[in-house]
Every structure is written in structure tokens, then in C-alpha cells.
Amino acid sequence: GCGAWIGLAIEKSQFVAVVRTPAAPSITVIVQASLAEKNGVPAEARQRTFVALRVRRKAGDPRLPLDVLNNLVEQLTLAGVEARTLVPIDQRSYLLISRERIQAAVAVLV
Asked: What is the mean pLDDT of residues 13-27?
């Protein structure tokens, strides 16, 4: 079932996130696509794929780049590109953008 492959993802993947928000009551699990495919995650569960763009901190600055993330999300939103942020506790930050919109996102950010 669902719990079995999530356990494998947590054990073997280099990138795992589990998200549930009030706006989306179903759980979103973010794992490497190859791991999901290898462990038989149904195609309907893999329907929306994302590209993770890492947002780096300034050299020597231990703070999370929340202001930078906010500015990037605002730019993307104005251009009609939905971006999700992921800020784990290890001081790395990511923008998650659907694979279908990655070219539009790059055009906005470059």
C-alpha cells in the first residue's frame, strides 16, 4: 500500500517531503521520480511532476533566504507560473515548479 512505498522513499531517497495544507486536504509526497516509478507508485499518483530549484544563501549568511524566496515567487506568480516553496530545517530552500511550466519559469528568472 501507500505506506510501504513512502517508507522506502524515506529510507532510500535523497529528497523526500510530505506536505498537507488546509487548502489541499490530500497529502502530497515529493520524492525522486525514478524511485516512485521503481516502487510501483500508480501513474495517477505520479501525474504531476515538479522540478526543484535550489535557492542558495549568501556566502557567510546563516539565515534562510526567505525574502529571496518571496521575491522569486512574486515574480513567477506575476508571470502566471505557480511555484511552491519548500524550506526544510537543514537551511536549504527550494522552489518547486511543475515540469510543464519550467521553461516559462526560467524565462522569468533569467
From this structure: 70
Cell 521553461 found at: 103
Given strand 50-55, what is the order of strands in its sheet?
50-55, 93-98, 83-86
Residue pair 75/109 in contact by the 8 Å Cβ criterion: yes
Using the structure block, give the residue that is written with the C-alpha cell 500500500: 1
| pLDDT, the chain, mean | 78
Among 13, 11, 38, 44, which Cα is nearest to 26's?
Answer: 44
Answer yes or no: are the C-beta atoms of 85 and 52 closer than 8 Å: no
Please report which confidence band the pLDDT of residue 25 belongs to, taking 50, 70 and 90 as the band edges.
Answer: low
Residue 60 falls in which region: left (phi positive, over 0), alpha (psi -120 to 50) or beta = left
